[in-house]
Specification:
heterodimer, A: about 300 residues, mainly alpha, 2 domains, 2 strands, about 45% helix, about 5% strand, globular, disordered C terminus, B: about 240 residues, Fumarate Reductase Cytochrome B subunit, about 70% helix, about 0% strand
């Protein structure tokens, strides 16, 4: 079998999960080397703060505001973030139960691919959750209010926010940890809540807010004329439209065109991700629209699209 | 001392029962807007009940994730369950025949419980990852449980106390009478730590016990297509659009 001299093993990894650090300190770029190939997974030793320089870009004010979020970090964001956490705790049973139930047993610690790849302990699911749990304990539990050190509670501070922004953006919400947790604690629920809290105080992720913000703007404005807009208005250009038959029953058009949400390239080029694309296609088809952006595709044209799809 | 322990036990019982009831009320009152059962998930309510049974009784997910933690954790929990059942004899007269039957098993379950706890505690020192995530309260919780187990075992095997008087004390408490408790340092320690455990239960990680039943990834039926699942607050958003 493959040993450590196999070509696979020596291929250096191009720091996939590490966007460039802030321009101010280019010298401190995180150095992440993929572990050598091995037949059986081994649990990496901890490398404290190995991903601490992986700071995603913060969204610009315009992009935040397009989505109805504050443009920049608001005054008194600490209190507002804690209040937002309280709101989410009342909306999501998952979050409330998961904040309480963890016993730090460690079953999840070696289950996250971000941890396996980087060795950064804050990429262990339990530690990622604890970034929020420590704040939850501080403000929403009695022991955290009385004895913060004892239960590992911490105030909502700039350092905590920075860690949230780093490490919650290093979670792909794959939910692998929830498979292994004896209580089914799902880090994705915590990550989503943290991102919602950060958005609500004006600290969004550039590539999330920008893409969604542009989609929101597009929906509010009339669509600019495009080449070929006359004859084929509202219809995907020939050759680019892909059709998919779902079990030979429902013909569905996949949203190949640039859409409001923006699809990951993997949706188009990789297996099984393309199944997601087929999934959107089915949903849009069932809803009677040909793409995820209904105002661009008024009803009559859509029916034309659908009939064109079925007739061919 | 008799009066002190009587008050402590009344207070601890109120806190334990009231606290857990309040937590369950909170969990029940919080909507679960999304269908998020971890797949492969059962598609029927009966299937979910069976899954939950496997999780609670056998710690199935933990078995899949880490054999060491499973072995030590299961040993501790099963030991604790047997020991608790064994202790029912202090609260009932006459003693139920099943409780009488498990007495010898419960005796040795005490050792299993202590061994499991010691192993779990050792992991907090020996395994780098677990050491990283451990807070002082994690250590204290294990110390507390181990202390209860060890003092219990000491009273059983080394320095006996007058358990007939102990039983009279607890039977008395249940009808609001205060009877004398044997003056025994091991017993005072044992009961004091039990009281502390009961008090911290509703505000600590011990909430994993009720929490597991409310975990949406484990208690939901995987039927999002068959029946629409929507929380009240999400339905309001729906109606606005």
């Amino acid at each position: 079998m493959a040993d450590e001299t196999t070509p696979v093993a020596v291929a250096p990894a191009p720091t996939p999960a590490a966007p460039k650090p802030a321009a101010a300190k280019p010298a401190e770029k995180a150095k992440v080397v993929a572990p050598p190939y091995r037949d059986y997974p081994t649990i990496p030793a901890l490398k404290i703060d190995s991903m601490v320089e992986s700071n995603p870009y913060v969204a610009a004010a315009a992009h935040n505001e397009a989505l109805g979020f504050p443009g920049t970090l608001v005054d008194g964001w600490e209190q507002k973030a804690v209040a937002k956490m309280g709101e989410l705790l009342g909306k999501y049973r998952s979050l409330r139960v998961y904040m309480d139930a963890c016993v730090h047993c460690g079953a999840c610690t070696d289950k996250c691919h971000y941890f396996i790849g980087t060795g950064d302990p804050k990429n262990m699911p339990v530690a990622r959750q604890d970034l929020m749990r420590s704040v939850y304990r501080r403000y929403y539990t009695l022991p955290g209010k009385l004895f913060p050190k004892l239960v590992g509670a911490s105030d909502m501070t700039q350092d905590v926010l920075d860690d949230w922004f780093r490490y919650y953006n290093q979670c792909s919400e794959c939910r692998r940890c929830s498979v292994f947790c004896p209580y089914g604690i799902d880090t994705a629920e915590v990550t989503m809540a943290a991102k919602e809290i950060m958005d609500s105080v004006g600290h969004g992720h550039k590539y999330v807010e920008r893409d969604h913000g542009q989609g929101a703007q597009d929906r509010q404005q009339p669509r600019p004329a495009r080449p070929g807009a006359g004859k084929h208005a509202g219809r995907p250009r020939r050759g680019r439209a892909r059709r998919h038959r779902c079990g030979g029953q429902v013909p569905a058009r996949c949203p190949w065109r640039r859409s409001a949400a923006g699809h990951p390239s993997a949706d188009f080029f990789a297996e099984p991700h393309v199944d997601s694309l087929i999934g959107y296609g089915k949903v849009f088809h069932a809803a009677g629209i040909s793409g995820p952006c209904p105002r661009r595709h008024p009803k009559p044209e859509i029916s034309a699209c659908s009939s064109a799809t079925t007739s061919r | 001392m008799n009066l002190l322990f009587a008050i402590l036990f009344y207070a601890a019982t109120v806190i334990l029962v009231g606290g857990i009831a309040y937590r369950i009320y909170e969990y029940l009152g919080t909507p679960a807007p999304l269908k998020i059962p971890t797949t492969p998930a059962p598609t029927t309510t009966g299937g979910v009940a069976f899954r939950m049974f496997r999780e609670v009784v056998f710690f199935e997910s933990l078995f899949k994730s880490n054999l060491w933690i499973w072995a030590l954790g299961w040993l501790f929990h099963v030991g604790l369950a047997l020991v608790l059942l064994r202790h029912l004899r202090y609260f009932t007269e006459p003693v139920n025949s099943i409780i009488a039957f498990i007495q010898p098993f419960g005796m040795y379950a005490g050792f299993a419980m202590a061994a499991g706890l010691a192993g779990l505690w050792a992991r907090r020192f020996l395994v780098e990852r677990i050491r990283y995530i451990s807070t002082p309260s994690d250590h204290l919780m294990l110390a507390l449980l181990l202390g209860i187990a060890v003092t219990g075992l000491l009273m059983k095997f080394v320095m006996h106390t007058d358990i007939v008087a102990v039983k009279t004390f607890f039977l008395g408490l249940m009808v609001f009478e205060i009877n004398p408790l044997p003056a025994h340092p091991g017993l005072y320690l044992h009961l004091g730590m039990v009281v502390l455990l009961m008090i911290v239960f509703p505000v600590s990680k011990l909430l994993h016990a009720p929490g597991v039943f409310f975990s949406p990834t484990r208690n939901q039926v995987d039927n999002p297509r068959e029946s629409r699942h929507i929380a009240p607050w999400a339905a309001q958003l729906d109606s606005k659009n």
